[in-house]
Design goal:
single chain; about 270 residues; Rossmann fold; 7-stranded parallel sheet; 10 helices; Contig An05c0060, genomic contig
Amino acid sequence: MALPACNLLKGKTAAITGGTTGIGRAIALAFITQGCNVAVNHLGLPQDEVHRHSLLDEVKSIQQGGIAAGKILEIPGDVTAPETSINLVKEAVSQWGKLDIFVANAGVFKQAEFLQIESSLLDHSIDVNIKGCFYSCQAAARQMVKQGHGGSIIGISSVSALVGGGLQTHYTPTKAAVLSMMQSMAISLGKDRIRCNALMPGTIATQLADHDMKNPTKKAALEARIPLGRIGNPDDMAGPAVFLACEEMSRYVNATGLLADGGMFSNLQ
């Protein structure tokens, strides 16, 4: 794990979309290690069962490690449907009585040449990355406002919100939208003591980056642009997410985009 078990989120309840693989999974495991109960959303596809089962096994291993770990609840559903997020929040609250933290992580990306992008790919990117984020954050915020004791909402954006990409013309706008969404939500929800921030990963070795990770030349070129000299891994996002989720650590951090890219953005200037 990226962080030792320090009970930083003890007694808290979180919900995460797209939480069985990649960054969402790493954040879910980090939260549970810190004593947080976590409701994890996933698509529930047959081909993803291996990830669901391995996540549950990993959580069990954490819980058997002699620490005050949190519990997990996994709920299938497609975030492009508003009902999915409403149900995710409802189940988390039914199980643990409240919602303190929400992470809008579910996202899609497929490299494509601008002139070759069809409406179906653009629509799917917008539906998942923007609408899915909006619906899920709205459901979480409604619950937090109802509770009346604040909370933390984290949208997973990207360094791609700040820079262009020739094969990402359908993707970079969606990640810029997540950053903008968190800023506007922070203004709207500040009176309710709900902090809204964007976590902005750089190049991370997840399923979404498989195309680049399997190309030695492309991977080497990416590494050369990162001052730390390596591609990030999902666990590198766990610490920043715990920081943004933890009231004691980030209580005055609001409406910001937290870059976690190994310094890549600065090296692109």
